[in-house]
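FORM 7B - TANDEM STRUCTURE REPORT

SECTION 1: FIRST PROTEIN
SEQUENCE AND TOKENS:
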Amino acid sequence: MNISFENTKIAFSDKSKKELIKAFWLFKTVESPLVVRIGEKLLKFALFVKFPVKWIIKPTIFSHFCGGETMEECKQTITRLSKSNIKTILDYSAEGIKNESSFDNVKRQIIEIIELAKNEINIPFAVFKVTGIARFDLLEKVSNKSKLNTSEFEEFERVKNRIDEICAKGFENDIPILIDAEESWIQDAIDEIVDEMMIKYNRNKAIVYNTIQLYRTDRLDFLTKKIEFARKNNFYLGFKLVRGAYMEKERERALKYNYVSPIHVDKKATDEAFNKALILCIDNIDVVSICNGSHNEYSNLLMVKLINERKLEPGDKRLFFAQLLGMSDHISYNLANAGYNVAKYVPFGPVKTVIPYLIRRAKENTSIAGQSGRELLLIKKELKMRK
């Protein structure tokens, strides 16, 4: 089936004219790097002095990019998306927490999502960041192969137990778990834990998914070796493929500590790596399940082409496309309309704790070449048609 991402009637089928106008002005605002920088500073200052910001954030940028403050509030979004054949990946996005009780709370939230998903056909995955349930500095120390003292060793055991509890719950309820990738200097610790979970829970199908950031120069080789290892040891692999989320931080740290940056020199090289990874995964579909987490039109069309060429079913549960709520609806809605498995990441959590996520989304729309411009062009096209 031919798919056109230009079909705005399908892309914005569940948006009212009022919602489209609101989205237009939101993307118009984040199109300016200066406005985003000033807004970030003002927001951080407001939070520091405990100035109330919820009244302005919740009805604007929060309502566009998030499903609500609680799982209950997200149910309306889940229902709305399902009417367009789009699934929901609930993402508890509270950030900046560093104590054990908060880590345990995040673990409970993820387990609650799995409990909800087992009876909700429109929630195909659960997802979490390891830094939501573990201290960043501890993960860095483990990644560096530094010796842990007794309390750190016990702390890391608690981290692994939290992850195992989440993955066991996913296995028990047949809900795959997406584990997000993070900064390169803590990723080794994450990869090692995910490998253990895959070997333990992916014996019959992919339940545990690792996330591969293809802006890293070593990830294609990493992917190839993981596939070889899984074949030799008779278990399945799940991968979410993304381009990468920490480019500026990675380059700055490499410069600061005088080592070669782990990421590709330009977008072209990253795009090539991403598309090669897609082909590699599809070529090994007998052992690999894929979640294509891309907002790039070509990469999504490439996966459609590969599915058709390999004569795979569009609804094959090993093949998923995923985009963020509030972004790239022209991709998500047109793919879903054509019968492919599509899910939207729907972040939720208290407004104050989700603000770091919202700042990243604003900066992403500013920094990715043409992202806001593309959104604006499509919204304008649809508004003009509706006149």
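SECTION 2: SECOND PROTEIN
SEQUENCE AND TOKENS:
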Amino acid sequence: MRLALWELGFRPFYLLASLFAALSVALWAAQYSGHLDGAYLAASAWHAHEMLFGYTMAVIAGFLFTAVRNWTQQPTPTGWLLAGFALLWLAGRVLVLTPFGLAAAIVNAAFPLAVAVGIAVPLVRAGNRRNYFFIALLAAIAAAALSVHLALLGVIDWPARLGLRVGLDLVLIIVAVIAGRVIPMFTNNGVPGAGARRIESVEYLSLASLIVLAVCDAGGWMLGAAILAAAAAIINGVRLALWNPWKTLRKPLVWILHASYAWIVIHLVLRVLAAAALVPDALATHALTIGVIGGMTLGMMTRTARGHSGRALVAGRAEMACYLLVMGAAIVRVFGAWLAPQWYMGTIVASAACWSAAFAAYAVRYLPILALPRVDGKAG
């Protein structure tokens, strides 16, 4: 049977993302224990950088290359060009493990820009102005990545952690935009009588609050960021409630998206508490990276892979295991570390094990789905 891996963006990038997510904890441990001594990024910096600009950017690239083709009916990168994008992403993962900091900076900033160009061409051809903002967000992520590297290289006097925070804010905006488009629709289509609603004022306010929060973070305005986080928590909580998440519990492909969005509210509340020095800031960060990004990407990776391979939109045991493991990873890392600080290292190990198991299970289950042609014989 022929290989279909390079026929559409989700195929290689979902596979690469899941494999990297499963293996990254082992690489992080190797860094932490000194077995990768001499790498450009040290253990904690590498972990933060790679979860954002490595794993998350791979999923975003795969999703956008697939979605933009649907939105515009125009081709997005396939074949050798798509393989080139994957090679550029892989080069970024390798270079941060070497002493070549400048090369790592260039390649890791170049990848989001390349993806921006890859979606800009079909969007402009189709006159799809509604989605031009994705181009701007990808360019902003590239700038955030570059700022992190230039700060670490001593070229600019700006904390690298701010570049990481702004990068996470930008990903949060992307997640919130896509969630607002698909979660109510998936809920109403998948759960008869769910009655998920969209109120335009709530939609605009929820996204605006996250955009202004990113601006506050970029400017280093801590008080303003705390106030915006509080406001954003309230309005995004209202947004989620309008989607009736409690009606989705029997539909795993739907409830994983609601559960992941709920972590946005938790993340924002924890940011407020961290600003008041009531909890460590790392708890808010991991609520976002594991709960929101991990859960939402895994939910979308299963749903879009099944849909674009001609399979039924039904979650089986493998998908359920993935969802429960990634949610477990978030709960243990955030609430376990908070409520049982004496077991801090144990919570990190347990969370990491759940995370790796979730994405290893996805990679094993979805390898044939991603690598082989659609079961219905259609292209893509």
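SECTION 3: OBSERVATIONS ON SECOND PROTEIN
DSSP finds twelve helices and no strands in the chain.
The two ends are 15 Å apart (CA to CA).

SECTION 4: SIGNATURE
Preparer initials: ____
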